[in-house]
Amino acid sequence: MALRVLLFLAAAISNTVSTTDHIVGGNKGWNPGINYTHWTNNQTFYAGDFISFRYEKTQHNVLQVDKLGYDSCRIEGALGNWSSGKDFIRLDKSKRYYFICGIGGCSNGMKVSVLVHPLAPPPMSAVSAVHSSEKSVAPVIVGGFGSSSVVLVRLMIYVYYWI
User: Fold this and answer.
1) How many Å apart are CA 53 and CA 67, to the nearest integer?
2) Which of 62, 94, 99, 103 gives 82 a disulfide partner, CB atoms 3.0 to 4.6 angstroms apart?
3) What are the tens digits of pLDDT across the range 59-111?
4) Cα–Cα distance between 41 and 97 in angstroms, integer?
5) Are 89 and 52 in contact (CB under 8 A)?
6) CA-CA distance, 112 to 146, in Å (whole number)?
7) Smallest Cα–Cα separation from 28: which of 125, 112, 134?
8) Which parts of 11-128 are beta strand (E)?
9) Nearest to residue 36, comparing CAs of 50, 48, 22?
10) Where are the alpha helices (DSSP H) in the chain?
């Protein structure tokens, strides 16, 4: 029985957080003449998501800059530099990120600003009691955006008291 509980935990942990890969510009990619503000208005970014840039690597690149660099297309002091043509960048913090093309494309509209939101707390329906006996002392998060370490600790407590 303890093995079934541990298998349940593994499944719960693997399904607690999902990420999205946002491909800048969709099927048009990272190129001049595209309205990236319009593109970002149709996206919702969460901490842990990825933003990816697809472009011809001999013609463009991606620089992460601050707001001043974004507004003025200034490449000095860039916070990040990618040039593979297929760049995947993890948006690991809740904040505003600024990206530009550092090979002349910024002045032709190749810049994008994205606001990354924190992860939403799990819905209340995702938290349920594991066992209704007096020995069950903690709930297990079975969905939503719960912390896998919290789930593991709670399951360990449950297994200890349940066995």
Assistant:
1) 19
2) 62
3) 999 999 999 999 999 999 999 999 999 999 999 999 999 999 999 999 999 99
4) 14
5) yes
6) 30
7) 112
8) 21-23, 45-46, 50-54, 62-65, 80-82, 86-90, 96-100, 111-117, 127-128
9) 22
10) 2-14, 36-41, 67-72, 148-162
